[in-house]
Amino acid sequence: MVIGLNHMTAPVEIREQITFARDIDGSITRSLLNLEGVEEAVVLSTCNRAEVIVMTLDFENAADRILRVVGEAHGLDVEPYSEFFYVKGAADAVRHVFRVTASLDSMVLGEPQILGQVKESYRHSTLLNATGPVLNRLMHRAFFTAKRVRNETGVGKAAISVAYVAVDLARKILGELTDKRVLLIGAGEMAELAARHLMSQVNRPVTIINRTYDTACALAVQLCGNAIPMDELNIGLAEADVVITSTGSREPIIQPEQMMIAMRRRRNRPVFIIDIAIPRDVDPEVNDIDGVYLYNIDDLQSVAQENLGERQQEALKAEKIVNEEVAKFMAWTRSLDAAPTIVALKDKLEEIRLREMARLNGKLSALSPDEREAVEVITRSIINKIAHDPISFLRKSGISSKRNVYLDVAQKLFRLNGGLPAELSHHGSETEEE
Q1: Active site residue 47
Q2: Is the pLDDT of residue 181 over 60?
């Protein structure tokens, strides 16, 4: 099951209230695992989405329980936000995870950052021992699917990021950026990407500011820019023509009052601010100040949708790949039904072999150790070859609507029911009739 919200279902003012970035300590993940019926969990948080991926044995009730955990983690009553959440199960959930990982569900189609973000979220969950056989396989197949999409289609060719779109929008609004002064607030991945795109557009060194001054200095060295401490933010705002901000702050770091002071120092020269942080770094009321042009991450969507033609055609090929991989994964999940029967069959055949070896022990006693080992090898080989075809058939039965019938027949043919737990035995009146 997947439960979450993203840039297509919820505006930025909703998304910034519900984000899992604070789950660094794993508290949300552990709360999910403590829910009745939830066996495995992965929490995914990016600038455009907040999602919970779980393996649950109680699909009917899991959604409400998960949403309660989400609400408690954010100090919110999630009921008023219910219209913004999507809930996907079974094949739809698998397809969603594959599409997200392959960047087919991103604001910028084909953007390369999402794969790394999904991998990091999965790694965090594994460190918390929050994943098991189902989600481990799901995530690895998602990574494989993303690799196929990248290698077999042109979706990722000339791929752009949100940071690239932000720089492109600045150029469209202000014209040539050659002589513009640029202030970059934040030194994370998205901020660094924006800075690298800007380097080819401006002649002046980019000014970088970050809560950790040493981090800002390190990035400034890489980008041949300048670093200033956070307590000089007001000076930076007064001097910058373009401000791109992407920090992890929970509260706005640029308020209307300080921006009005900066504009007076600028003598009202226009300033272009792009806020690509979630939650937002800039108070929305800043946009009401004369000369300030404020854009948030949702404003970038219209820019991102331009010139998509060729990539959209490639996306159709990518969707076919996703559908193929979803079908394979769902067949694997259905094959799990066969696992107890297969184990029981192997155990029974081995039991027969050992019993016969014991019965003939007197006759075999005259054999040398090497000859005795040869008999062991031969009998095991015979058993494995006898079992090969039935086991292969049972594994492949996952794709058949009659898999329960096949399992029931196998259990009866080999008299396996006695060795299976009652809940795993498929025989019954319904099957008898079929």
Answers
A1: yes
A2: yes
